[in-house]
Design brief:
This is MerR family transcriptional regulator. InterPro entries: Flagellar_operon_YvyF (IPR022258). It comes from Crassaminicella indica. The chain is mostly helical. The protein is built from four helices and four strands, in the order E-E-H-H-H-E-E-H. The chain has helices at residues 24-43, 49-56, 60-68, 99-138, and strands at 3-6, 13-16, 83-84, 91-92. A hairpin with a 6-residue loop joins strand 1 (3-6) and strand 2 (13-16). The longest helix is centred in the C-terminal third of the chain and has 40 residues, at 99-138. It is elongated. The model has no long low-confidence stretch (mean pLDDT 84).
């Protein structure tokens, strides 16, 4: 059953599909803003965040969100746009984490899932043992 929610951008009610927290109208506007910002950044490599925001009319927070989502990448070696890794603070070009932190997080998650799988297999083995033990008692 579809869920009705308020759009995070405009507050209107919309049918939530489980994917986006904004309504289709705001999604369309968001996509248009993204295209304008992308074109401006690629044509003006040294532009600061404030310049990009003023020239495109797109809010600075939205531009930073595009960068954090990995939809935009800072181009050029001397770019004035600054994005930092959320974990270590190292300068990055796109996304939320630098390559080293992303690798560490990925390894940590992978080992966590392996522990869960091992625990599940141990529980399954114990169930088999209990079943066998009960079966032996019946004889």
């Amino acid at each position: 059953m579809a869920e009705i929610r308020n759009c995070k951008e405009c507050g209107r009610l919309f049918q939530y599909t489980g994917i986006s927290k904004i309504c289709p109208r705001c999604q369309k506007k968001d996509e248009e803003d993204f295209k304008v910002v992308r074109e401006y950044i690629y044509e003006n490599e040294g532009a600061t965040l404030t310049e990009v925001s003023e020239e495109t009319g797109v809010d600075e927070d939205k531009i930073l969100r595009f960068l954090r989502e990995g939809r935009l990448e800072i181009v050029g070696e001397n770019s004035a746009l600054i994005l930092e890794c959320e974990r270590c603070g190292k300068p990055i070009r796109t996304g939320r984490f630098c390559d080293a932190c992303a690798h560490e997080l990925q390894a940590g998650l992978k080992s966590g899932f392996e522990k869960v799988d091992r625990l599940k297999s141990n529980v399954d083995k114990q169930k088999e043992k209990m079943y066998t033990a009960e079966r032996k008692k019946r004889r």
